[in-house]
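Input chain follows. Return structure tokens only.
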Amino acid sequence: MQYPQLALLIDGEWISGGGRATVPVINPATEEVLGHQPLATGADLDRALQAAQRAWPVWRAKTPGERGRILHRAAELLRERVELLAWLACIEEGKTLPEARIEAGMAAEIFTWYAEEGRRAYGRVLPQRTPGVRMTVVKEPIGPVAGFAPWNFPLGNPARKLGAALGGGCSCIVKPAEETPACAIVIAQALIEAGVPAGVINIVFGVPSEVSQHLLTSPVIRAMSFTGSVPVGKLLAKISAEGMKRTTMELGGHAPVLVFDDVDVEAVLDLAVAAKFRNAGQVCVSPTRFYVHHSIYERFVAGFTARARALQVGNGLVAGNRMGPLAHDRRAPVVQAFIDEAVACGATLQTGGKAIAGPGYFYEPTVLSDVPESARIMNEEPFGPVAVINPFSDFDAVIAQANRLPYGLAAYAFTQSAKRVNLLGEQIEAGMIGINSFTIAVPESPFGGVKESGHGSEEGIEGLDAVMVTKFITES
């Protein structure tokens, strides 16, 4: 397979060169330079804004059925190209090939979902109050949307931003991560080939703060969707508030996992280790804070440690490797600082705890136990291959621990008690809760958090609502 030419997509034209600044795209498993991504100039961003504004009425005028047929065709093209997409996700972001294939399939499913859900943006007719007067409520596309996608799911995240906007009848400007540009480019190519008109989709890259400031201060943009860190999300929310722009914020988390004493310990361990070290822990909903009932605690720690130690780490393209590298060279020092500080606070390092000699940005799967609540890793998301495990005895106390932080994106719990299942669903503060499962994201379900983990949801009917406005009409 061949790495594609890197470019910007503006008003239907692929643009590169022209003296634009570039950044290298690096394979995190080999440190090989894959290519150089051109960055948008201010003039490029202005042109993208003009294109989105001009193309929006064209796309909006198409019927939901017409838009749906185009999105269905794009999904078919992505499924035909699943091996290319998976390969690109491996070499750009570092995930393993099996994980990347799943992500490629989910990206296609997102477009299939919005192809159908766009046909169900229903309004309603209100009961008549006066003879001859009709009152209706309709849903309409909000207008040009700006989407900002991170690097950790280089296929799924751009698909979420594009799928919602296109399914709702909006034009869009998406800024994917500069670390993983080809993944987004190939998705955009499939949409264009499927029949999306010029200007409806625009893909730009650049210095994140400069691009976001330029786009969000423009009156052209009517809504914004951001996936990323809490501090950046707060900054973008402030900028958006100046123009009263609709915002969807999918921000960081620090997911707790509550494991009670009535579970099949070995079965839970198999699920938990696979979920924790998926994508080297670089997942916003990654299970990180494990609270395990004291009666099974030592067995759980030992089993988790043994499984983590046995994980085969290496290039995601190599069969048998279960965990790839960190996505870039900036992550390892951050993860190391979390671990060193936790150990200094009194935590026990069960396994891992250091980077693996290069080439590549590999880090050992790491397990910490008996971690003091004051340690940074108990309060800040490590976003790496680190699990922290602590014991608990009391139900109310562990619920308080799960809800202690200002984040509420995802949470998990394992128990065989039906009553406890209901209580957990009621009392845990999170936008998504997996009970006896780590599967919490499918295209038809809302994906989003509460508290400082953000507001609004992507995917599901909620994802479509985020790019629609409600209009009330009285006719007499």
